[in-house]
């Protein structure tokens, strides 16, 4: 749903040059339609969605609201939502009973200008220390600065865990606006702290009522999108729970979306999805990204350059060093203004961290889940204790318990999934896909999350609750086989329960060391692949990794996903070489 860029007004017309450069970068992202916007202290533009799904800027005289991402307000979508938001807006914005979706917003009203994000701060809004530059584009913001320096914490978090957590980016000079603050963009940027409490205790609600309440929450959201898009939706389907539950919601709302699956013939996800599609007779497309095109090393630089700009440099999967299949698939999902649908964050209904049902410290959780490194891969810039220290501080801030000591109750630990993990991982995905058009991620909704946080862990283990929710909404879909070896209208098998238990019973100290142990057993491969051989990668960057060698011992890296993410950072460094200090 578009993007925007603002820079502070200056007396020497330097802002004009910044805006021209930013707009050039936005064109490289794929944007073509721009609306100038101006406040008392800033000037810039809003960019319409690349695939033109709907209106996301509304002006009323000198007042305006400009949104990037997908906003629902007062059960309204598009222009109607923007009109209602502008009319009702008060600062700080606290009307979360009316607002949902993932978005970043600029509101200019009665001569004052404000910036805020969605409930979880998922849609990424980048800014420098003094808010002289504000943008949904990382590259446009970075290029507006005189210099940038790599932040070791951000670099290591990106490399080990796909994207930096909290408000960090991979460079010191740019941060992201978090969910705990809203900004007035005046002559001086004024920060207002906001609190967004979530439930901290388990409720005694019977499971039947829990299912009915969550089903109605989800149905309410799906009805809004169904009214706006009808069958013009693209929904994934795999062998698991989340995508099937998302499809169930659309079917329940009377929608017949285009259904797709990524993978190769014979893959569990592909064959389960094909089986369901054959029996239910809906539109279905299997797509194998790796077979999209056969390219040569000579083709590679142009493809990587396009991928780099379209994904705003920091792609979280294999979509930078590939054959163009990821970009093709991404555009196909929203071409012609279609709605892209995702089952992301569905694990809010499950025990995502696979931790035992007891209190743990934030440090234990961070070590068990985020310590995906081995010391042989890194240089002496890496401080293992400091790395976990900073993750611990960010975790406590995320759950609104900064500086807390001691163990956290289990419901607080569960909050770390939506507030920290989803914000970092899905937030990047949302921000890339959301620039093309509208994006519906039903399970990353604060009311859905609040309900899920009040469930006993026993209902989350082995997907018991989520399977029951799916069966309640669409028993026909639930009855089909899954990639887990059973249908979701039946209890999970003993083998599936024991597989989860094997992780839950491992103590946190052992979980913290498991990645390093796995690496000693041999090379690690991930599902995203990529053209990482010297014949291809050597065409787009220096394989001595002149920028990243200060952080990593590249000769030791035998994890293909880690290697690819380090290469992504090296390619970014090459692109920003004139500014890097």
Question: What does this entry look like structurally?
Answer:
Its EC number is 6.3.5.4. GO terms for molecular function: asparagine synthase (glutamine-hydrolyzing) activity. Keywords: Ligase. There is one protein chain. By secondary structure, the protein is of the alpha+beta class. The chain has four domains: 3-193, Aminohydrolase, N-terminal nucleophile (Ntn) domain (Glutamine Phosphoribosylpyrophosphate, subunit 1, domain 1), CATH 3.60.20; 207-294 and 321-349 and 415-490, HUPs (Rossmann fold, 3-Layer(aba) Sandwich); 360-408 and 508-521, no CATH class; 534-576, no CATH class. 39% of the residues lie in helices and 15% in strands. The chain has helices at residues 14-29, 79-88, 138-143, 152-161, 207-229, 242-252, 268-280, 300-310, 325-334, 362-370, 384-398, 410-433, 446-453, 457-460, 464-473, 475-478, 494-504, 508-520, 534-537, 560-575, and strands at residues 3-8, 34-38, 42-47, 57-60, 63-73, 76-77, 99-109, 112-117, 126-127, 133-135, 175-176, 181-185, 189-193, 233-236, 258-262, 284-287, 339-341, 360-361, 407-408, 439-440. The strands form four sheets. Strands 4, 5, 6, 7, 8, 12 and 13 form a seven-stranded antiparallel sheet that branches. It is globular. The two termini are 34 Å apart. The model has no long low-confidence stretch (mean pLDDT 95).
